[in-house]
Amino acid sequence: MPDETRRPRVVIVGSGFGGLACARRLNRQPVDVILLDQHNYHLFTPLLYQVATGLLNPADIAYPLRTVFRHSPNVRFRQATVAGVDLAGKTVQVRGGAPVAYDYLVLATGSTDNYFGNQEIAEVSLGLKVLPDATRLRNHVLSCLERADAEVNTDVRRALLTFVIVGGGPTGVESSGALAELMEIVAGKDYHQISRSEIRIVLVEGLPRLLSAFSEHLGRYAQRVLERRGVDVRLKALVKAADEHGVTLSDQTSIPCRTIVWSAGVRPNDPTGTPSVPRFRNARIKVDGWLRIPGATGAYAIGDVASPEVGDQRQLPMLSPPAMQAGRYVARAIVDHVRGVTVQRGPFHYVDKGTMATIGRNAGVTHLPGGLEFTGFLGWLTWLFVHIYYLIGFRNRISALGSWAWDYLRHDRPIRIILATGVEPEQAPSVASGSTRKMG
């Protein structure tokens, strides 16, 4: 017999910005919520590059999910890796565990790096989507400097001191600026045998300008700042091939290097595996205006994994603000349905509150609705306060603010510890070698 006293169960898959916003809005509502994620923390992904460049500790941008919902009477977190979703049977399959049944499903699984089918590039490049990526990149960059400081072979030394970043969006621009700032701090000081002039940072972008989601004015400003800080910006260039020795661009330019950072594209993490679910060409689930998965009762998809059609076949941007707004919208829709509200909410409408990026010390770009734009110190300050506001946890905010203040006043990044992984660049082959060892 069915249990008439059981409250509806909402299963949220993914604890990113969208999933967390939905779970928070469902706190203390007449539903039981299970939040599933393979990690036991919420990650503030916009600051991953600052962990990778020695400015922030990993704990500064991650917050335990069980702590977030410590006092919640109805939201429970379960660490699990989702293996699939049965939309017809209304269950979520998890590895090594029993299926989790749901009355309502919120798919908020985010995105991962997209290498556009080029497996060779995927094997030798370093991504920046999860926390282990950031610590791995920090280990790798610092290990390259350690190796280069003692290297006598000119070709090997040059490759070790060349860093190629692929993708001129916010992640690529911010990573390039932060990496250039790190090199200004350590070259000739911590590493006495390395001069800043030897270090080469190359930013590769396939479009005619950087920051294509921003105005042309802000994109040009970002390029000028990066070039002034020693970054070699290559526009209208694509990475055609890459191996452990370097990259080859679409214009046949070869760049010997030991470091390739990939930020050129993302694709959705979709665990449904259902061919009948409509998708856009980029594999995002095509939900309706109310963020519901077509043909799946009680199932919603939000954030990077899905989008409704917006205007002329466009999609919502794969950014944190649309995900958070969608998470809150879906939570309200579920509560309305549970409470028997007969008047349906209007379709989801994303309110653009602006976009921003930082290019390093005293340099940032901010675009607000209505065409209002900031650059330089004001843009950087706006970026700083917005990111402090959205960080979860008082301790994380204070720690991040303290690290930024230390770096600003002392011009120093003290978090430069190499954690051995067994695949450091010291063990990498020379440029003349025929080994196929991956960079790490």
Q: What keyword list fits this structure?
A:
about 450 residues; alpha/beta; FAD/NAD(P)-binding domain; 2 domains; 4-stranded parallel beta sheet; about 20% strand
What is this structure, in a nutshell?
This protein has helices at 17-26, 48-52, 65-68, 119-124, 131-150, 154-160, 170-186, 216-228, 320-338, 376-390, 394-410, and strands spanning 9-13, 32-37, 41-43, 62-64, 75-79, 82-86, 91-94, 100-101, 104-107, 111-113, 162-166, 200-204, 231-234, 239-243, 246-249, 254-256, 259-262, 266-268, 285-286, 299-301, 306-307, 355-360, 363-368, 372-375. The chain has 440 residues and is α/β, with parallel strands linked by helices.
Strand percentage, roughly? 15-25%
Secondary-structure-derived class: alpha/beta
What integer is the average pLDDT?
Answer: 90
Shape: globular
Q: What value does the Rg take, in angstroms?
A: 23 Å
Look at the structure and give the CATH class of the largest domain. Alpha Beta
Report the count of strand segments: 24
Lateral arrangement of strands in the main beta sheet: 5-2-1-9-20
Number of helices: 11
Distance between the termini: 56 Å
**What is the CATH architecture assignment of the largest domain?**
3-Layer(bba) Sandwich
As a percent range, the share of helical residues equals: 25-40%
Q: What is the count of structural domains?
A: 2
Model regions low in confidence, pLDDT < 50 over at least 5 residues: 426-440
Q: What's the CATH topology label of the largest domain?
A: FAD/NAD(P)-binding domain
Largest sheet: 5 strands, parallel
